[in-house]
Amino acid sequence: MDVKQRQKQRDFYLKNQVLTASPNKLISLLISGGIKAIKLAETSLDQNDMVKANHELLRAQDIVDELKFSLDHSVESQITVDLDRLYNFITQQLVAANVSKDQEKLPPIVKLLEELLETWNEVSQKQNI
Q1: Under DSSP, is residue 102 helix (H, G, I), strand (E, B) or coil?
Q2: How far apart are CA 72 and CA 34, in angstroms?
Q3: CB neighbours of 94 closer than 8 A, spacing ≥ 6?
Q4: Between the CA of residue 18 and those of 48, 54, 75, what are the distances in Å?
Q5: Considering Cα of 125, then 67, then 78, then 112, what sign does the dihedral take?
Q6: 23-126 — its CATH code?
Q7: Residues 6+ away with beta carbon under 8 Å from 45
């Protein structure tokens, strides 16, 4: 099986996963995608591939934007306010890391997203969603 066929299979699998996922699972997929993009950016910076690093950091910013857009501001909740602030902070750090190509800014962002993912999955599991 060649590279294009494998990519097609992965794309098909991902598309099906997204189309059949619950809203909570979609958030989980977004957070995981953000983590993956940032780690790929770190690797790209290690390899001095600034174009790829830029692409992955922009992808991570897009994902964080989607997370932010998913917040329900019609519900007055401290959690919504806190998540909004967290997403703003993460976006600022991603932009700063991209502009300066400062790899040191990325591990703390990954850690924040990993903790958020863990918490999100625990809450979703408790709600049996």
Answers
A1: coil
A2: 20
A3: 38, 57, 60, 61, 64, 109
A4: 33, 25, 25
A5: positive
A6: 1.20.120.340
A7: 53, 101, 103, 106
State pLDDT tens for residues 65-115. Answer: 999 999 988 887 899 999 999 999 999 999 999 999 999 999 999 999 999
Q: Collapse the DSSP code of 41 into the 3-class scheme (helix H, G, I; strand E, B; otherwise coil) and give the result.
A: helix
Structure tokens at 54: 């830029």
The string of pLDDT tens digits covering residues 7-54 is: 666 655 555 555 555 888 889 999 999 999 999 999 999 999 999 999
Residue carrying structure tokens 């494998």: 6
For 64, what's the count of Cα atoms within 13 Å in the CB-facing half-sphere? 28
* N-to-C CA span, the chain: 37
**DSSP result, 1-16:** --HHHHHHHHHHHHHH
Please choose, from the candidates 125, 127, 123, the residue with its C-alpha nearest in 3D space to the C-alpha of residue 115. Answer: 123
> Is 32 in a helix, a strand, or coil?
helix
